[in-house]
Amino acid sequence: MNKGKAREIPEECPKTDMEREWEAANGIVDDWDEEDLDRIVRALPTRPDIKELQYSGARFSRGAIARLGQRLQSRYPTHKFQILLPYENWKPGGWTSGNQPASLFSLLDHYDEAQLPDDADPDYFERFIIYVRDAPPVAGVATGS
């Protein structure tokens, strides 16, 4: 499976009841209602123009994280988003907005697959962060009267 750079996360085949029960029993979240999550929102102390959304409280699949990023981009088209995943330290994907595919960090973007152990890029995360900021004005477009 290619877990590399920004890409469209396809909708998966519908899950069977058994798959849903197994995921629920193992605390895996592949889709959710945002109100069901533990979320902390704050402005970054050194960059008050960037808001930090910290998500935790379950095991989140890469696909679910990317879909949330896409949903936020659709809901707030005048903002830019960056998803950070916890490896040894927080690793950011690229800034995205609008209809761009969400960008998730992957070690495969930096190393050849043969250099990495099979489990180097996790499929699930127990927490993640999304940064949100206003998109800069488009060059050459008047913003005032």
Number of helices: 2
Low-confidence spans? 1-12
Distance between the termini: 51 Å
What is Rg? 17 Å
**Shape category:** globular
Helix content: 10-25%
Question: How many strands?
Answer: 6
Percent strand equals: 25-35%
Average pLDDT number: 78
Largest sheet: 6 strands, mixed
Give the structural class: alpha+beta
**Whole-number count of domains:** 1
SSE arrangement, N to C: HEEEHEEE
Quick structural summary:
The chain is an alpha+beta fold and 145 residues long. It has helices spanning 17-25, 62-75, and strands spanning 28-29, 38-43, 51-61, 79-86, 90-92, 124-134. The protein has one domain (25-134).
Overview of this structure, please?
Helices cover 16% and strands 28% of the residues. It contains two helices and six strands, in the order αβββαβββ. It has one domain. Mean pLDDT is 78; it is low at 1-12. A hairpin with a 3-residue loop joins strand 4 (79-86) and strand 5 (90-92). Strands 1, 2, 3, 4, 5 and 6 form a six-stranded mixed beta sheet that branches. The chain has 145 residues and is of the alpha+beta class.
